[in-house]
Amino acid sequence: MDFKGERVQIFTDGACKGNPGVGGWGVLIKSGEHEKELNGYEQLTTNNRMELIAVIEGIKSIDTNTIVEVTTDSKYVKNGISEWIFNWKRNNWKTSAKKPVKNKELWQKLDSLVQKYNIKWIWVKGHSGHPGNERADELANDAVREYYDISVSDE
Question: Are 55 and 110 in contact (CB under 8 A)?
Fold first, then answer.
């Protein structure tokens, strides 16, 4: 779907059954009357990885000539991309405790992507009735269920 030149809202969420465990990510993209939904899963992952992948996949799916709002219930993602990442890059991808940044490759991918957009980052409390966040959560959990359905049918 072409969202060129329009205001785009991206709602993202990640889910994980076990941490690590089977995880899913979900994205709802809205622009005017248009909506697009994306989701996927990984067999062995963490909730934080799923939160990051949801944002990456959402941003990757839109045109660069847009005004973007990303809404997430993950403080890890919001604070990571809007605050922590600057020190991580300055410290050669080490935390303030001098430990390697977890999910470095995903942070680097997200950092590269966000350079092409003007993004407003919005945090909402998860499972609080926010319609976009609730739909992203459903999509993430649908992806986890899809993994289990495929795994069971393969046996």
Answer: yes
Alpha carbons 107 and 82: distance in angstroms, whole number: 11
Respond yes or no on whether the N-terminal peptide bond of residue 20 is cis (omega within 30° of 0). yes
CATH 2.40.30.10 is the classification of domain 7-154: no
Instruction: Please give the Cα distance from 49 to 29 (Å, whole number).
Output: 20
Condensed to tens digits (0 to 9), the pLDDT of residues 23-40 reads 999 999 999 899 999 999
Domain boundaries, the chain: 7-154
Give CA–CA dist 122/25, Å, rounded: 18
- Residues with a known catalytic role: 13-14, 51, 73, 127, 137
**Tokens 């934080």, located at residue:** 48
pTM of the model: 0.92
CA angle 46, 41, 59 (to 5 degrees): 90
